[in-house]
Structures are given as structure tokens and as C-alpha cells.
Amino acid sequence: MTAKIAVIGAGSWGTALANLLAENGNQVKIYARDAEVVDSINEENYNFKYFSGYKLNKNLKASNDLEACLENVEVIVISVPTSALKTVLNDAGALIDQDTIIVSTAKGIDEKSFKTNSEMIKEFGFQNVVVLSGPTHAEEVMEKLPTAIVSAAESKENAEKVQDLFMSKYFRVYTNPDVKGVELGGALKNVIAVASGICDGLNYGDNTRAALITRALNEMSHFINYHGAKTMTLSGLSGMGDLVVTCTSMHSRNRRFGIEIGKGKTLVEAKNKVKQVVEGVKTAKAIYKWLNSKNRELEMPITKEVYQVLFEDKDPEQAVEELMLRSKKHEMESVVDNSLWNI
Ligand SMILES: NC(=O)C1=CN([C@@H]2O[C@H](COP(=O)(O)OP(=O)(O)OC[C@H]3O[C@@H](n4cnc5c(N)ncnc54)[C@H](OP(=O)(O)O)[C@@H]3O)[C@@H](O)[C@H]2O)C=CC1
Ligand SMILES: O=C(CO)COP(=O)(O)O
Predict the structure, then answer these.
(1) Recorded GO terms, molecular function (predicted)?
(2) Residues within the annotated binding site?
């Protein structure tokens, strides 16, 4: 099955996904707001700004005319940072038929409304939203290295349609009905990837990273459970999978940003070093504000420490020490089975 598809956003992820869809035989147009990026894709088949080392499929076309990109498309993939989504929807919303399938690929939570990307898209009147998320660094998708991802939607038909469009011999797509769980997994793990980078910047070890990832799953499960999503989803690609890849890979902008923070750089210096979007910064702020706004008692100690290091000038070493010396507890606190203690 192939389709006429528009991809909005020609950064790392939009370019990698548009290229994959074109490789799969779809008719794809990518929207870039930067005219030089448009020219480099159309004239030389590469994106000089984000992927200068990779040749793109020659059938992939670019434009900075939003209306032309969206004309008669069956599917629209949105690949801009969470903070840009509303602007894009304001610009594009009226040009899109309400029945069109919108594929949401950003990983974040809106700082003001505390909505996920798919929720914001639905607010604009689009009901056929599919969330595509998982452990998928754009660079490795461009390299055609075996990768797996999840297509999550309320409608099985839509999830499977998107699965069909993206699936290839190097890109395996699973479906999942737990849209919220998949989406929150992708957003929350960015904060943990920042924490992982901070630990690396402080020259902590592999034990530290393993502890961080495992305890992060625990705090993510509190959050996901509170929001009515399935904690089981966290054992999948958009939870465990994405935590592993972003907490360990040098492709991860969140982790690279965290490394700079751990080495003593300020938030602005670290962002300038990474240059591309670091979603974990805004997500940490959104969650911290949300936790504090109604004195919510959810235990999210790692996310809280990340916020304080980034926004309250807390010393990262002190943050780690405080995490280590928190009050003692049982590992599986929510499911303690006292009968196993033989008492
Ligand atoms: N990179 C990856 O490996 C993956 C990224 N993601 C997620 O995808 C989302 C996008 O990330 P990514 O592509 O990596 O980010 P990049 O920083 O690489 O690129 C962002 C892109 O969005 C464009 N953009 C920003 N604001 C607007 C706007 N208002 N209108 C149109 N275009 C806009 C930028 O344009 P310009 O160049 O003109 O600034 C740029 O093309 C993030 O949420 C990220 O977490 C998900 C999976 C993998
Ligand atoms: O989400 C990603 C890979 O799954 C990309 O992570 P970064 O935004 O940290 O680079």
C-alpha cells in the first residue's frame, strides 16, 4: 500500500521519516520553512542543514509552500518540536481535511496546557491521530539500521494503515491501542536521558546508568498509571526501549545536553552546544509545574532533581547524593507482598 503524504518539519526526524516513506514508494512532499533546505533537497537530494552526509531518495520533494504540500494528501506526518506544534496547526489546520490521518511524532508535553501532542492535534478537530514513537534515532534510520517503533491509535484501522506505510525491511512497526501510554513514555524518557547525560558528565559509571534507567521506569509508571494509561506499555518500545536508546546513545541530544550540564555548563551553554531540539528541558519543567500545582503526591524524584539542576542552579552532585540518600524503601513498594518475608 502506498499513499500521497505530506511531512511537516524538515529537521532530523522529519527528514528521516520522509525519506523512509519515499523509499517505501509513497508520494512524499516535505515542508521546510527554510528555503535553502528546500533547494538542497530538490536540487541535490540532501538536507544540508540536518543530514549533509546522506543522500535522500530522489523521489522525495520539498516545498516551503504549506498549501501546496498539503493538497490532496491522505496522511500528514508532523515532525516539529512540541513547542512548535500549535503554530504549525494554526498555519496548517484550515488547509487540512478533518478526516485526514495525522501522524504525531514529537515527544513532549506542552508546558502551558500540559497536553500531549496528540491531544493538541485533536483539539484542532482532527480525530484520526496516530502516535508514532519508539527507540529510533534519526541518524540510524537514515543508515537503514534495523529499527522498531510503535504505531498507536484509538482506531485499529488507522494504527494498521500507518504500520503498513512505514514498515520496511529495516523499519519494523508494531501497533498498540494505548495512545497515552506510548506518547507519555516517549515524552518522559527525555527527562531521564538528560539525567543520564548529567551522570556521564559527572563521570559516574555503568552501575549508575542501570540504576537510573530501572528506577526511572518506576517513577514513569506512577505518572502513567495516574493518567489512566497502561503501565505495561512501559515495558515496550516507547518505554524501556526508548529509555535504553536515549540514555546510552551519543545520538541523543537530551543525553548530550545532560553531559554538558554534568560538566558544569549552564542551561544556555549546553543548549547552544547541542544546537537541535532538547525536548527533555521543557518536559521536566512541565511535569515539575504540574506536580507542584496541586501538591500532587506522585513520587517522581529523578524528574524533580533534573528540574532543580536545570532551573534552580542545584549542584548536580548534590542532586545525585539526595537521590541516593532518600528515605529507605522497598524496591517494589506498590506491590509489596509481606507474605514473602515469612513473617
Ligand atoms: N531526531 C530524532 O532522532 C527523533 C526525534 N523525535 C522527536 O521529533 C520531534 C522533532 O525533532 P527533530 O526533528 O529531531 O528536531 P530538529 O531540531 O532536528 O528539527 C526541528 C525541525 O522543526 C522545524 N520547525 C521548528 N519550528 C517550526 C515551525 N513553527 N514551523 C515549521 N517547522 C518548524 C525546524 O525548522 P528550522 O530548521 O527552520 O528551524 C526543523 O526543521 C521532537 O519532538 C523529537 O523528540 C522523535 C524520534 C526520533
Ligand atoms: O527520541 C529519540 C530517539 O528515540 C531522539 O532522542 P533525542 O531527542 O534525545 O536525540
Answers:
(1) glycerol-3-phosphate dehydrogenase [NAD(P)+] activity; NAD binding
(2) 9-14, 33, 50, 107, 134, 136, 138, 189, 242, 252-254, 277, 279
